[in-house]
Design brief:
- This protein is α/β, with parallel strands linked by helices and 177 residues long.
- The chain has one domain: Alpha/beta knot.
- The protein is 36% helix and 21% strand.
- The protein has six helices and six strands.
- A six-stranded parallel β-sheet has the order 3-2-1-5-4-6.
- Helix 2 links the parallel strand 2 and strand 3.
- Helix 1 runs parallel beside helix 2 and helix 1 packs parallel to helix 6.
- The protein binds S-adenosylmethionine.
- The site of S-adenosylmethionine has 15 residues, from strand 4 and helix 6.
- The site of S-adenosylmethionine (SAM) has 15 residues, from strand 4 and helix 6.
């Protein structure tokens, strides 16, 4: 079975977080994650819209919901990474992680992160020691950690794909060789 690189997004609020949670899931998918689980309020619209994108744009990407964060993390059979600005420098952690090919669970907080999440994680990792967002954190982490070719690779079963067309990104004269 293919290696799992799954996100656990905590504390989703249907009204306030729909866009950001959806952007976390889409970014995770694009940057190479294989699945997305969220906790907090159940949001069927969110699930439908992510499934729809995954179906049309190809590859395999799952979306699930969990009520029990602690149980979910403890049951994870692989490495657990929590992204937080209070963590260690991600460049050092990624060097270590690259030596393993276990499944990986990557936890992203929401408004609040319970203490036990830090304790249950094998790694608490910062993407810089400044506050920013779940979307930036997952994109930078996966971009540094996984194969960058994934970003431009064809995805199996896609019914839509971008046709890169030079005329659409016409460079101005100054940048032509
Ligand atoms: N005070 C929170 C914290 O602990 O990072 C900020 C909440 S932030 C809006 C929501 C989530 O984005 C965090 O729980 C974390 O997963 C991620 N995040 C934000 N800044 C980060 C950083 N510098 N490094 C890693 N993850 C970060």
């Amino acid at each position: 079975m293919a290696r799992k690189i799954e996100i656990l997004r905590l504390d989703h609020r249907t009204v306030r977080d729909q866009r950001i949670t959806s952007h976390v899931a889409l970014s995770a998918r694009t940057f190479g994650a294989t699945g997305f689980t969220y906790a907090g309020e159940r949001d069927l619209n969110l699930e439908e819209s992510i499934k729809d994108v995954a179906k049309r744009w190809g590859g395999s990407f799952t979306i699930n919901y969990t009520e029990k964060i602690g149980t979910f993390i403890r049951a994870w059979d692989g490495i657990v990474v929590h992204l937080t600005m209070y963590g260690e420098d991600h460049r050092d952690a990624v060097d270590v992680l690259r030596e393993y090919d276990d499944d990986i669970l990557i936890i992203l907080g929401g408004a609040k992160v319970p203490r036990y999440v830090y304790e249950l994680s094998d790694f608490n990792i910062a993407i810089g020691w400044q506050p920013h967002s779940e979307v930036a954190a997952i994109a930078v982490f996966l971009y540094d950690y996984l194969d960058k070719n994934l970003l431009y690779a064809d995805r199996e079963g896609a019914s839509i794909r971008i046709n890169p067309n030079n005329s659409k990104s016409k460079r101005s004269e100054r940048f032509k060789n």
